[in-house]
Amino acid sequence: MRILHIADLHLGQTLNGWGREREHSVWLDGIVDTLVSEEIDVLLIAGDVFDGINPSGESQRLLYRFLRNANTRRPTLKIIITSGNHDPSGRLEAPSDLFEVLDIHVFATLRRDGDALRPDAHFVALHEADGTLAAHVCAIPFLRASDLPGLSFSSEKGAGSPVVTAARRLHEAFGMHAEAICDGKPVLAMGHLHCRGAKEDTGETADRGIIIGGEHALPADVYPPIFSYVALGHIHRAQTLDEGRIRYCGSPFPLSASETGYRHGVTVIDINGTEITHKHLEMPRPVQFFRFPDQGAIRFEDFEARLGDINPDEYDDPEMYPFIYVNLEATGPASVLLQDAERLIAQAPVRLAGLRVTRIREEAEDQTIELKSLDETTPEDLFLPAFLKANKIEAEERHIIAFREALTGND
Does CATH number 3.10.20.70 belong to domain 2-282? Predict the structure, then answer.
């Protein structure tokens, strides 16, 4: 049996104001092709299907069109979807009655009977073509503090994190049911959280760690050993934890500047009897990403030359123009550099994803800060570091003169 593990689609996401529907459409078409070429039997989507709790009509159409195409191209395909922290749980689950006709199973909320958890309602059996049971999947949606049983912050000091304790109790309930029904077959789990030890995304626009009741991440051992493979979403960098048992497949393509260096792709899982193996399958990016420069900062004239190397004949669809991130060296006033760079970019077949100006200092800066009272300082003393911070260069004599004139009210 072959399973495809994907996550963190973030349908509806924008990058610096640019919509990404065409990218998602191309990538999802590629996933459908992969389902066919890799002869996939089960598709797992581990959360953050949408980018926000109020997805647009186009974002929802992208999802439904993808599910329909997947079902058309692979009629025997089983699809299991769990929610992420970005997803609108109710809206994700709303079409469940229709989905089940297509063998699509959505888990965006915990199943309960009154206040009692129903672990059995979170399991999906996987069968071979001849009807033989091959494995089970335990589908766990994104968990909020209110989902954790018996969560209490009044525990005795030194007793450990109450969130971890409650999360472990919840997963143990799923594990106990898995033990009862597995019949010697593998059991896979799905989740959407930050697992301790995972290499986090970095950068200003990266997805931050999920906070559950004040807890940043959960340890890998909240998943009982009965789970042979744990398909996770949330961290956008593909990676494995716990000796390969726990897997983040990563996001489809760069969703921020911090992700441009990732090897984006999906995870193919093979089940042979009780043995589970997996491999990373790199997927082509629908749109190119350029960073100028790869590291550090670039002088304006060098950026102009490199921008000119991008051949406009290669790109005929503005919605598929490459994204660029630019870090200019502050060789002049930042405001002037930014204006000149934006003018150049507007004339090129690219879309601006990020632009900044950085001042490069040849000598190490003295980190000592001398604190002064208002009686010991002047407006000009405050203006000079403020100008440097805003423009990334020292104020010139003309700037100081203009400040003095503004201060005194002279024209």
Answer: no
